[in-house]
Automatic annotation (TrEMBL):
<dbReference type="Pfam" id="PF19028">
    <property type="entry name" value="TSP1_spondin"/>
</dbReference>
<feature type="domain" description="Spondin-like TSP1">
    <location>
        <begin position="97"/>
        <end position="149"/>
    </location>
</feature>
<dbReference type="InterPro" id="IPR036383">
    <property type="entry name" value="TSP1_rpt_sf"/>
</dbReference>
<keyword id="KW-0732">Signal</keyword>
<dbReference type="Pfam" id="PF00090">
    <property type="entry name" value="TSP_1"/>
</dbReference>
<dbReference type="InterPro" id="IPR051418">
    <property type="entry name" value="Spondin/Thrombospondin_T1"/>
</dbReference>
<protein>
    <recommendedName>
        <fullName>Spondin-like TSP1 domain-containing protein</fullName>
    </recommendedName>
</protein>
<keyword id="KW-0325">Glycoprotein</keyword>
<dbReference type="InterPro" id="IPR044004">
    <property type="entry name" value="TSP1_spondin_dom"/>
</dbReference>
<dbReference type="InterPro" id="IPR000884">
    <property type="entry name" value="TSP1_rpt"/>
</dbReference>
<keyword id="KW-1015">Disulfide bond</keyword>
Length: 295
């Protein structure tokens, strides 16, 4: 195949008032010579060959085919498999699921009143190779009635000890629990299992510890100072009393005269400001101190 052409020329040219010529002067198209022309044909498969021979049950058989006719340039190509394979037998046989027989019914679950009997069964053989699955109950129950039960009255435990009272807990509590519930129309359980009542809290006075031992004298002659301290063991609460008191004391010591002729007297600093109250509400205490400036 190839291309062929045709052309045309302008016979009369336009003047200044005429329309110009429009269009191509040369055209081409695909052309096949009659000596080269062929009939259009599609691809064609040949017949399948026989399956190959199986040498054992686990082997695979194969068959093949070939192309008998190739397509022309514009023909439809072949589409599909050239070879196929299959198992040499049908595979293992399917087996459905199978239930075992039901177990005997159990004895009644109750010794009196209403109860139940039960029985169960299991799967004796599961399904294999796409066999049917088991479908059905594996546990059954039915009611049973025994002699009437005796009445059982409710029994509650003893009350616990009342909880402690303090400034943070103005209520105290106690509780009990059900040891044996009522049954078969017996006496019902009490409705009260937890009780509370207000606390009676007495005002508490503050308490100071005993004085500690005196410290060693800070001078050997000419007068000195020794100290002792105590602490507040318990602040007052709930409106209790706390009298002003001293937490640190000083006493003179080493009063004999020194060999030096200079006579110096002990001199205290001014008292510090009172501290903040030790309690945020109610009664508390404040402290202040001073120090020895010169002996």
């Amino acid at each position: 195949s190839g291309l062929r052409f045709r052309r045309r020329d302008i016979e009369t040219r336009n003047n200044e008032c005429g329309e110009p010529c429009l269009g191509a002067r040369i055209e081409s198209e695909r052309h096949v010579l009659s000596s080269c022309a062929q009939e259009e044909r599609d691809c064609a498969w040949g017949a399948w060959a026989e399956w190959t021979h199986c040498t054992n049950p686990y082997d695979q058989a194969v068959r093949r085919r070939s192309i008998e006719q190739t397509p022309s340039a514009r023909g439809t190509p072949c589409s599909g498999r050239v070879s196929e394979t299959k198992a040499c037998n049908d595979g293992p046989a399917t087996a459905p699921c199978r239930f075992a027989a039901w177990d005997p019914w159990t004895s009644c679950s109750a010794t009196c009143g209403q109860g139940r009997h039960t029985r169960a069964r299991r799967i004796a053989a599961p399904s294999r190779h796409s066999g049917a699955a088991c479908d059905g109950a594996v546990f059954e129950a039915k009611p049973c009635t025994m002699k009437a039960c005796d009445k059982v009255g409710c029994r509650a435990s003893s009350w616990t000890v009342w909880s402690a009272c303090d400034q943070s807990h103005p209520q105290r509590f106690r509780s009990r629990h059900i040891e044996v519930p009522a049954a078969n129309g017996g006496v019902a359980c009490p409705t009260s299992l937890r009780e509370t009542k207000g606390c009676t809290i007495h005002p508490g006075d503050c308490k100071l510890s005993e004085w500690g031992s005196w410290s060693a004298c800070d001078g050997s002659c000419g007068g000195g100072q020794r100290f002792r301290e105590r602490i507040m063991q318990r602040p007052n609460d709930m409106g209790g009393h706390c009298a002003p008191g001293v937490l640190r004391e000083a006493a003179a010591c080493s009063s004999r005269e020194c060999e030096s002729t200079a006579q110096d007297e002990c001199d205290f600093s001014d008292w510090t400001s009172w501290s903040n109250c030790s309690a945020r509400c109610g009664a508390g205490s404040r402290t202040r101190g001073r120090r020895v400036l010169a002996l």
